[in-house]
Amino acid sequence: MAPGTATAPHTLRFEAGRLCLDLLATAHPVERLHSALPLYAWITASGLVPPGTPLPEADPSWVTAFRELRSCVGQLVHASLTADHHGAQVPVPVPLLALARLNDLARAATPAPRAVRGEDGTLVRRLDAAPDCAALLAVVARDAVELLTDPVARAALRQCAGDNCPLVYVDTSRGRRRRWCSSEVCGNRERVARHRRRTAVTRG
Asked: Model's pTM, two decimal places?
């Protein structure tokens, strides 16, 4: 898959605070990982590989694999949110098949980075070899494992308060007051709706 053939960056979102949660955002409000080209765009924009890294082996099977991982992460993250909401008093079942698959994917070796001299003489990151799909999946899967097993990070997980928005983010704001996955998207939508309600009441 050649660099420069990716979809427009504005279709991708990286506001969740964790790589595995950014992967969840590719399913809402529309499916973004519908072919190899947008998957390449996400892999590059997410920082999984340095810009311009060729992925010659990428094919539709990669799309299927990343979407499977996304499903596993989504099930486990939402189970964690439910558990935290109910507290220790009400045990919440862990999706065992999703957990087993996540652990399987996390076992693979991740891409090996190298520091090489760029054109201007400064050191830049490159990969030792073009990564295969399993190596890239392992990076995202390990991020999910770390998130789900870290009590502090897990306690900061929030689901967006926007209408019909299923996205989850890590709330690192002061006082943990962040309400939306994106102030520009869901936050702005709610502000517009609030303004319309006030206008309607005034006119009434």
From this structure: 0.85
